Amino acid sequence: xxxxxxxxxxxxxxxxxxxxxxxxxxxxxxxxxxxxxxxxxxxxxxxxxxxxxxxxxxxxxxxxxxxxxxxxxxxxxxxxxxxxxxxxxxxxxxxxxxxxxxxxxxxxxxxxxxxxxxxxxxxxxxxxxxxxxxxxxxxxxxxxxxxxxxxxxxxxxxxxxxxxxxxxxxxxxxxxxxxxxxxxxxxxxxxxxxxxxxxxxxxxxxxxxxxxxxxxxxxxxxxxxxx
Length: 227
Known about the structure:
The protein contains eight helices and eight strands. By secondary structure, it is an alpha+beta fold. A hairpin with an 8-residue loop joins β1 and β2.
């Protein structure tokens, strides 16, 4: 399998996807399952076509089911697709080296710009910060909700620095000591420039924060060409 195809599979598996082994030990395949809510149905169909273009064969199955929140009693509609393939067994060993998902150097070595875009569309977000007094935009921030250990976060930070010259900062959920990554205004622009060619049209709202924030031009530069 070539690098581009492999990178797409990893990009689909590290966000809202998961790889599951069959209980039948003789089964040489594993199953990739990806789930999204109704608002992301078109995005899920995009992944369905994308996976089909990579793996060929029968198009991944897509189905809808209902679930109920036991506490509130509210019913939800869920959409999932699944695909069985022998290559997923190899991916499972990389993504779940100790039985649970873990960010590792080996996994990161398979990722490309397109993988990063798929990962971001699943687990990323962007916001525009406003000045408390003037309420005017004063910067923007891009976030990857990785919810991983500090060790994994350090690995990801180094990977982004080495591969993209991006300087990630940490957000820590004190309830469970899980780490996520965020990027400041300058790095947000760079991040978005990397992933934007691969962002599906229904998910472009996730990169709007960079366009919505227009930094103030210093007076000395007004009426002059900015190169």
